[in-house]
Structures
1.
Amino acid sequence: MRIFVALMLSLCALTARAQLTIEITQGVDNPTRIAVVPMGWSGSSPLPEDVSSIISANLERSGQFDSVPRTSMLSFPSKESDVFYRDWRVMGTEFLLVGNIEERGGRYYATYSLFDVLGQRKVISNGKVDGGAGQLRDVAHHISDKVYEKITGIRGAFSTQILYVEAFQGTNQPDNFRLMLADADGARPRMLLESNEPLLSPAWSPDGRQVAYVSFETSRPAIFLQSLATGQREQLTNFTGLNGAPAFSPDGNKLAMVLSKDGNPEIYTLDLRTRQFTRVTNHYAIDTEPSWTADGKGVVFTSNRGGKPQIYQVTLASGRVERLTFDGEYNARGRVSLDGNTLVMVHQRNGVFHIAAQDLTTGTLRILTETNLDESPTIAPNGAMLLYATRFGGKGILAAVSLDAGTKYRLPSKQGDVREPSWSPFFN
Amino acid sequence: MITKAMKQGLSFAFVMAFLVGCSSTDTKTDDADTGANGGGVTTGTADGGNLGSSDGSQDGMQDLETVIYFDFDQAVLQPDARTLLMAHAEQLRGSNASVRLEGHADERGSREYNMALGERRANAVRDFLVLQGVNRSNLEVISYGEERPLSLGSGESSWSKNRRVEIDY
């Protein structure tokens, strides 16, 4: 209960201060040039959110777009009849997004169209989306998703969210840990839980309605389940030893985890309907960090059974274990992409910890990041980018890299150490 | 008589000063060493340790160093750790004091693996103490992984202090 009171009290203050900002560090060589014209708006006061800027920022963050600055625009059309293709062609614009927002009864109604400037044709005609007073950012993310998908053929993930842990640790104050939820661009951070004891390993349920995580609030590690809508929490485990690394199965019915109640860290699954625990691994070495394969039939995990941490896969039906990583002396915390083709992981090379991706068909491993002390990779539901935790300027921050390593950006926080991102599934 | 007492007092003070001097020298040396091999056993509980050790060895539960250090990705007890743990076992044998063994890791690598590694380290300390005759049911193991560093900061001088087990009486 205390936690919820703290949550309510801190919510407003946090929203203003703690936002993660975006610094794009690398984009693709030939980004698509798009003009996002300021949305037509006839209200008496300015729109509470600059919808067009949010859309531009989203598209630029993907690394695949370069947006035309407003100051370069020759006109600000908000409907098709005002669009003159030559105005946009002369400045190299490939796509043009125009739209209009109206407010009726406290609700915002957006209409938007996307034009292919070179082909001189409309590729999205009068798309519509509406939202309540606090949902203009959602409206912007929705339009971003549609534009991104129309141009790239890949579903946009701008409407998704991220979980992360914010930690305040220093000599002069007691430790403070916060489980945070924010938009995928770091905006609108909300605190889900606050504790003086460590919080770690947040994980999304596949329906996006619940999160599982590890909390030391009982003075020992325990796995908790929390509803995002109600804030209601349930303690799922209370075993002696490790209770960690929760991971939902793709169908949401099971939770894989690590428990050391029998003496060694072993992978278990918990059936969330029957509450039955099933032991998956059986080895005297460390087995931890389970993550489900895309088809839900197997679990990849970290084990030092070969002497050093490497990533293995166990087939649940047979119990057969297979080693997946061979390149390097430290590969840990694997996550398999939704298409099942790529394994991302923490990979040590020359004493430096990077995020690497391994093609599961060819076995080829590629280092994606140039930073150090990288950890906790989490792949966006559309498979285009991954978020990870690293250190920058002496602080823990989140950073992102595309799975082809072509695009990179950072999300530095103004306060605390930010770590352990977990990218949500699609919400619909 | 007075002179003799004063002489004794002076020589005691001299011995104390000498001991304190030695201690601080040791501290510096150990700090420098930690950069190389992580074998240093100084920080964390150094306060009072110097004074206590010059007092002798009578009841001394608090006198022993209570932090055991480890190499990267290792849970093997080093020789100096074994020596220290023998002394702890001496105190704990036949005692009903419950002791918490807190395992920790440095920040490198993944967090849940480090959680397991911290537990491995605390288990290694527990198993050694049990072999030395300490009642296992009085020893509680908990791992904090890399979540509670002793030294904030990135570099071997911090990491070597963080790869540890704390014996919490």
Note: Residues 136-152 of chain A form the longest helix (17 residues).
2.
Amino acid sequence: MAVAARKSKAPAQPKAAAKPAKARSAKDGAGKAAPALSNVASFSKDEDLHAYREMLLIRRFEEKAGQMYGMGLIGGFCHLYIGQEAVVIGMQMASKDGDQVITGYRDHGHMLACGMESRGVMAELTGRRGGYSRGKGGSMHMFSREKNFYGGHGIVGAQVSLGTGLAFADWYRGDKTVSMTYFGDGAANQGQVYESFNMAKLWKLPVVFIIENNRYAMGTAVNRASAQTDFSRRGVSFGIPGEQVDGMDVRAVREAGLRAIEHARSGKGPYILEMQTYRYRGHSMSDPAKYRSKDEVQRMREEHDPIEQVRARLVRDFKIAEDELKSIDAKVREIVNDAAEFATHDPEPDPSELFTDILLEPAQG
Amino acid sequence: MPIDILMPALSPTMEEGKLAKWLKKEGDQVKAGDIIAEIETDKATMEVEAVDEGILAKILVADGTENVAVNTPIAVIAAEGEDVSAAAAVDPATINPTAPQAAAAPSKQEEVAPAAAPAASAPVSVPAQAKAYDASSEFPAGAEIGMQTVREALRDAMAEEMRRDGDVFVMGEEVAEYQGAYKVTQGLLQEFGPRRVIDTPITEHGFAGIGVGAALSGLRPIVEFMTFNFAMQAIDQIINSAAKTLYMSGGQMGAPIVFRGPNGAAARVGAQHSHDYAAWYSNVPGLKVVVPYSASDAKGLLKSAIRDPNPVIFLENEIMYGKSFEVPKGDDFLIPIGKAKVVRPGTDVTIVSFGIGMTYALGAAEALAKEGIEAEVIDLRTIRPMDIETVIASVRKTNRCVAVEEGFPQSGVTAEIGMKIMEAAFDYLDAPVARVTGKDVPMPYAANLEKLALPNVGEVVAAAKAVCYR
């Protein structure tokens, strides 16, 4: 069955949250990690419903992708976003049309959040012709110019320079759009990240660097790989303000996102948001995740799950009936099942596709 | 309808595993995300999560079962109140573990159907009547012609294209206020201002990535490397981001960007500043690689490169910057990328080269003429895509070929030329193709050793005589 294109924006674009916390500027110098904000602005019913639905879509999509990987329908590498949903949804709720998104290889959630079709994403995972890259990119390499999604990059850290380049283009055109450049705690140790920080600040480029700190770079815990584990301070020597955000709370993410995006959009240059988040699954599908305890994972799921938090609010604060939530669940499941069905039966690319899209023909004249 | 839970794979290569433990029992309520079982292979343990909701109606494969094939149904989930008798009746012994889930199979089929696939790389596409590209009308008829250095021609090409298209900008180290480390960007800052002529920090990896990002967004950056030796810092962005994104995006998003700067040996700058990267970049699908020799080619090709929608590697040479050539005046002088040029017609032997290698080729042709050997000299101008047809047309006439480059011999551009000639004109050859290249050593500093490491006219003359058996 056909599934209509989804609109990813929140129903209402609120102004910056009521009580904006002050970003810790570079001058504040040493100090412990800023505590996650406890009094984050609350969401309206519509906003919570929107966040719930969007995060649930990512969760269910990724669960299905994991299942299809297990069935051999998806090959190669497949990195799931389960647990981190609040980060990209909160940031999308803070962004405006025209803002660009770019990320690394854990990219399915970002694509769905940008409004890309579940069918096209899933069909790319299965390497079929209906995929966003017509089956030639795979899990880590998908793009949509229409949705301002610039990939999907498999080289750890490369997207940071590229995202800074998107911001350069925004600055060059003066169109007041912002580049939202995502990377992980692992990528944050790459040299080109700091080359990009330097130029972004030097030229005051409109970029928000969103560091998704899910605590493990593949199997290496942050404290085993990073001399400075407070990633919000990684821009200090460039004078880039940064803050740590509870990346499991979609409200906190949106609030920080509004602040950071406004900073970048107003011409003040880059901003760093360290999203403290957690991935429930292994690094990729073939990672049994022996480097952390089951208790740790279980505790995160039970106490901090981004979707459960919203669900609880919907029931408690907005008196949403279980039936209504169930019907949202059912609709999301329908979209995901439809995508899986499509991606399973869509044909593989025509063999002639092997030699297409290598070079573009120059325009005449 | 009851839903089968299948034995999952931990990786694409896993074929079977052990069903270590059930964490739910028959009759338990399960919801999506619940861990219902653990499976093991020799390498790892994995948890099986429920994707669907319902009641675990039937366990088909018991705890501790070894060698359970991937995709074997291991349990059945039913909706509340659903009749599970049909499912419960399934006897695991009757399950054919090799029967795949409806759709899992198609990828394998294609592998054994090579007939459906196009030829490996569509290589030997030279037609029986190879036709040389005719470069004689490249200079516009009646155009005023003046002398210009390669340096000036490159600057004019950039300035003209920047006037023509506001999306074109230049970035690199010392390109603006310093007027270019080799003065190629002289005057651009004054004309176009700091928004379009941008001094970068010394940070090749970062600014190459920023350039590619801007190109993905639709701008047309010209990224100058002070030398291509420093582009080694940036080669990941050039290859993994610029060259591959168009393909990986199914044609949605390309990078119209020019990476340019001096390449190869200058004089007495040692091994780290003398490397010729023509062969490296020419190995990469998704790139175009241009190596001009004359000032007019430098200008016409750089203008084409800036207008090209693909990433173009534009390899210049420091020694050539100050050399003067005839260049037609006017803003619309373009040389097509991918076309070689017969620079000197001849009948006895074909000498093919590019970039500064042309100085040896032309010098040798001059010397050979004095000995009665008429060499036809071809300037490739573009290494990728390579205009092998013009070379083949010449070789079919002369039946002999010498290929010349400053780069290293192994896997070099001349190696590629020799192979292509063998594929398309083997029967026309009266002698094996010969090559003259830089020596297979890091570039030495000492003046005498450096001279020995580079090709020279004498070596080309000797090679030409050898293939002419003279």
Note: The longest helix of chain B spans residues 150-164.
